[in-house]
Amino acid sequence: MLNGGRQRLTIGEFARQTQLSAKALRIYDETGLLRPADIDPSSGRRRYAAAQLRRARLIGMLRGCDMSLAEIGQLLADLDVRRELAADRLDRHLSELETRQTSRRLLIRHVHAILRGEEPSMFEIQTRHVPAQRVMSVQRRLRVQQIAPFVREVKTAFADHLAGRKPTGPFTLIFHNTIDNESDGPLEAVLGCPDDVQVTDLIGIRTEPAHDEAFTTITKAQWDFPAILAAYDAVACSAEVTNRPRSALSCREVYLSEPDAIGHDELICDIAFPLG
Predict the structure, then answer these.
(1) I need a surface site. Which of 83, 208, 260, 270 has the fewest CB within 10 A?
(2) Kind of pairing, strands 187-192 and 172-175?
(3) Residue 4 — very low, low, confident or very high, per pLDDT cuts 50/70/90?
(4) What is the pTM of this model?
(5) Do residues 148 and 230 both lie within one domain?
(6) In which domain, by residue range, is 50 found?
(7) How does pLDDT run across 12-57, given as a tens digit for each residue?
(8) CATH of the domain at 28
């Protein structure tokens, strides 16, 4: 159809030419990724401009690159400003894909060892005694995608509250229950603090009891999800844990380094299970 000298395509024809489904095109319209050129007010029929074909094909290819709709929207916004910004965002996405692939390989190596009846060799399990310590604490119920923003928030709050004083213990995430897309923990963030630090509206103060724990120290590559599942499994199934009564304390990640400050082969944290 020609409309004012501009070619218009039905959603079916546009879908055929872009190799996208009509359902996908409707989703892209609803999310603002790709609005139809016009919509008939009486019938609601969508029509697209031929000039939109290239953008639609680009969206389809980016979906094939395992980009979320939100990420694609950010890339297209960058593209509207400057092509180099969009290319840089795609490079970052590729780096993230490569990291996830490496992480999956590490997890599969661990599972292979289990299937062969071998002792997983990637992780050295140790034990230690942890004295009682006074800690600042923030606890919250959240889903897995909310962990990173939560960690950033509490680290800032802890640093502001210490006001230049040094913490007396490591930053630790305590997983009181499962956190994933269906389960919401809760998750507790704690940091050792001096005796004169007081509670605030956000930060509680408590004493973490003295305990023994089994742990393994992992690199940043082993910490990336889903590789970290192997480390948790290795400690949970170790003789050090299975031969001791279950502790009332929850498993935890005890941080040695800031994730953004280290490379993938450097040590980042301990995966620790308190022992009864």
Answers:
(1) 260
(2) antiparallel
(3) very low
(4) 0.80
(5) yes
(6) 2-81
(7) 999 999 999 999 999 999 999 999 999 988 888 899 999 999 999 9
(8) 1.10.1660.10
